Amino acid sequence: YTLEWRGDVPDGFEVVLVPVRALTNQRRYARFSAWVADDLARRHADRVVGFNKMPGLDVYFAADPCFEDKARNLRSALYRLSGRYRHFSAYERAVFAAHARTEILMISPLQQTLFQKYYATPDERFHLLPPGIAVDRRAPADAAHVRAEFRREFALASDDLLLLQIGSGFRTKGLDRSLKAIAALPAVLRDRCRLIAIGDDDPKLFRGQARTLGLANRVSILRGRSDILRFLLGADLLIHPAYNENTGTVLLEAVVAGLPVLTTAVCGYAHYIAEADAGLVVAEPFEQARLDQLLAQMLADPQARARWHAGALAFAEHADIYSNAERAADVILKERR
Description:
alpha/beta; 6-stranded parallel sheet; Rossmann fold; 10 strands; 2 domains
């Protein structure tokens, strides 16, 4: 069941487009839930698995952060009087309430604490999944050749330092922080640096910031694309100083490609960077000066980057970060209480 579908339908799947409309998102989602419940009453399903919080789910895939926590800490008290708040709060409660029966597939351990803070959800209903990194993101046997060809294509000299930032939602991902950190580098490092940011977002604000910081000729902002592995292999560092990030899949995509990472501790997958010895993590509370310091430290130390590269590839060999779908299937198919 979905409100829209793009692309081909996989073999063996039935996609049901739910024909509901409304002037507001919350009203549209309420009508969607009601339509689905009515259809399921006529056409029985063994399991109902949802990617959006809503009543009637057997299993919920928790890709989104805790709504209640954001509403209470990032919004004014007046927001909690709105119809939008009442809708999304009730739908989240339908999944996470202590008396509910929905099994919860978690992709970040950080969010479980928040859900339990507001809903007292029992531990046994949470199931932490491996990240589910695609195996084709791993560094191939000809990684060195791919890197050399990429750097030739982008006119990167052997001593140039390419920083990579990947992910739509440039504001949330901290692109402004990255630009400030590059501008703060010592001239001897800054003059060797280039930044490529990739994502489907409006780049106007950040191109303006780059011009203001004197970085216009060192920053390229590209639309989302399918050949991300080439960029991961061709770069020298992934920088991801997000303001808020439930997981941060790109962190692990960089790790399995052997690319050192600089990120922030708010990212759900930041702990993997420390476990893999694949880079550095800016602790909370975030300080721009600390990001500036760590970026300069990483770029000035090729031996450390080589160690992080080796640590990342070794981690990719043995870590359980690929079996997301298999573990999820086990939870979905287990006998219901």
